[in-house]
Amino acid sequence: MSTTTGTPAAPVTPSRTYPRRASLAVLCAGALMTILDGNIVTVAMPAVQRDLGFSGAGLAWVVNAYLIPFGGLLLLFGRLGDLVGRKRMFTAGLVLFTAASVACGLATGQGALIAARAVQGAGGAMTSAVVLGMLVSLFPEPREQARAIAVFSAVGAVGATLGTFLGGALTQALSWHWIFLINLPIGLAAWLAAVRILAPEPGAGIRRGADGPGAALVTGALMLTVYVIVGSGDRGPAATWLLAALALALLVAFTVRQARAEHPLLRLRLLRSRTLSGANGVQVLLIATMYGFQFIGALYMQRVLGYDELRTGLAFLPAPLAVGALMLGLSARATARFGAYRVLLAGLVLVTAGMALLSRAPADGSYAADVLPPMLLMAAGFAAAMPPLTGLAMAGAREADAGLASGLFNTTQVVGGSLGLAALSTLAASRTDGLLHAGAELVPATAEGYRLAFRVAAVIAAGAVALAAAVLRPRRA
């Protein structure tokens, strides 16, 4: 790619003797399992609450217990994958995730379920952190890499909706325990396939980057950051700002440590790559927009349009189907013809336009006129933007740092989604409460709160356009 500022990831020599398409299928299967799990749990939450007696606040920890270690450990496991071998990290993550899934499914108490979810989050981080690094090693040629990233991104988009349907079906037909137990056969099959199909990738050696203090600092900083975001609604402003300051202090201490360590966990020169840092910054804004749309959009359909859970799930179905079809059919070819930068910018503009259009949805709106058109516009934009954005983020890393770059990209995705969800939901709730206190009726006040959230999300998406235009524009030779 002409836009890279670092040395592109080189292929791992042994992988040339292995079936690359089968390897891609294995990587997609491993990632799909973690994506399904995140959405499958959301649908089953009421059943879990009834069975185990969770309070409303306690129930949130069924999700948070997974999300905090997942988001906090991605960077660490990405770097460890570079040191011990990415295949080892991937397969170990599959084993840990599968075992923890069985423990979740067999849990009979609140503490057992939350503890198993935390272990599951660690296993998911091990698997997810190295996937992109392995993918770019398998497909070093730009055109093939673009196609592989498009396939991987499409699997993720479709898997998010598939998890919602599987969660409802398994919970209704059997019990909530099976949303976790279903991972046992899937995890075993994925592990066996990974052992047999994926090429061995010898790492650089643990002594080349075994920075224990640095690992503790960055893991603590990231886990605390995710905790501050996902738990912001349960604490007062003073406690939230104090924890945020502590997370920032840990991050600063980690940066100082990396600048002085003989074998740093994170080579700071990696962050000097304009392409890598810019792509991660754009992703934070893009994912914040899209996560906000999914959450606030679902609430709009339920609380304003009066949809039930099943009808809401069906209403969202066109978006991932469109994303998957466009990613598989057009994304790689468009990137090859027009370049990653132009396709990314066009996709971000479509997302911004779709969100701006959605911000006009009235209290007496309809799905066909006010929700479906902007949703399809955003789906097309996301399908155009995400594969080239992923390619640009990974192109700024050398082969020795591919796992670290993969972990960093996944980390910014978690942080962006958490920030968008927390900020936009808080804005919507505050606006609605203010209108209700002023005497407005419930449905119009609720709709206005959601419109405000959509308007802010459109501004965030416009910020992604501006950042991409300023930072990711290819430099002239």
Features:
477 residues; 0% strand; 79% helix; mainly alpha; Growth Hormone, Chain: A
**Tally of DSSP β-strands:** 0
Largest sheet: none
What is the H-and-E element order?
HHHHHHHHHHHHHHHH
User: How much of the residues is beta strand, in percent?
Assistant: under 5%
> Number of DSSP helices?
16
Structural class determined from secondary elements: mainly alpha
Q: What is the general shape?
A: globular
Mind explaining what this structure looks like?
The protein has helices spanning 20-52, 56-84, 86-106, 110-138, 142-173, 178-181, 183-197, 212-230, 237-260, 274-303, 309-316, 318-338, 340-358, 367-395, 402-437, 442-471. The protein contains 16 helices and no strands. The relative contact order is 0.14. It has 477 residues and is mainly alpha-helical. Helix 2 packs parallel to helix 4 and helix 3 (86-106) runs antiparallel to helix 7. It is globular, with a radius of gyration of 22 Å. It is a multi-pass membrane protein. The chain crosses the membrane at residues 24-48, 54-77, 89-108, 114-136, 148-170, 176-198, 210-230, 236-256, 277-301, 313-331, 343-363, 375-395, 407-429, 449-472. It is found in: Cell membrane. Its main location: membrane.
